[in-house]
Amino acid sequence: MKKIILPVDFSDSSNKLVDYAINFAKDINAEIHLIHVAATDIGFVIGDMGFQYFPEVEENEIKYELKELNKLQERIVAQGVTCNHILKQGIAGDTILEFADAQNADYIVVGSHGRSGVYDVFIGSLTKEITKKSKIPVLVVPCHDEE
Q: Lowest-pLDDT range, 12-16, 58-62, 65-69, 80-84?
């Protein structure tokens, strides 16, 4: 069975991306491996006293993200597609590519928000990074709103 890596960030566009991945998985008889990469600095706050770490903030955020992953997994399985999920902390692009390699994945399905130019210079594009570095096919799904 083929394996699809599906990075999700729980944004509004994730629904469109998940729908596409479900249909693609059905078409090629594949299973979906959801991955969410959490920021490594969850719980750190900078204030008058400098950097402070609040473990309860990190714990609550991780619990929320795991709950969202479980909901997505249930939605995918309900459509008849085998699915599992993982939450990792790290640098998103590298973590996703390492996970795809470890899973011997056949595809990575990512979304494109349709932003470019100055946005990419200052924020960067995870999709661009993955497509440049990936050793396996990357399917880019346009997830921006149609105007």
A: 58-62
User: Hey, how many other C-beta atoms are within 10 angstroms of the C-beta on 96?
Assistant: 26
Cβ neighbourhood burial of 84 (10 Å; 0-12, 13-18, 19+) = middle
The radius of gyration computed from the CA coordinates of the chain, to the nearest angstrom, equals 16
Return contacts of 66-69, CB within 8 angstroms, 24+ apart. 68/8, 68/10, 68/36, 69/8, 69/34, 69/36
Nearest-angstrom CA–CA distance, 85 and 14: 15
Structure tokens at 98: 């390492």
Q: Do 119 and 144 form a contact (C-beta atoms < 8 A)?
A: no
pTM of the entire predicted model: 0.85
Work out whether the CA dihedral 52, 61, 144, 96 comes out positive or negative: positive
| Residue 23 CB neighbours (<10 A) | 12
Distances (CA, A) of 32 to 60, 93, 144: 26, 18, 22
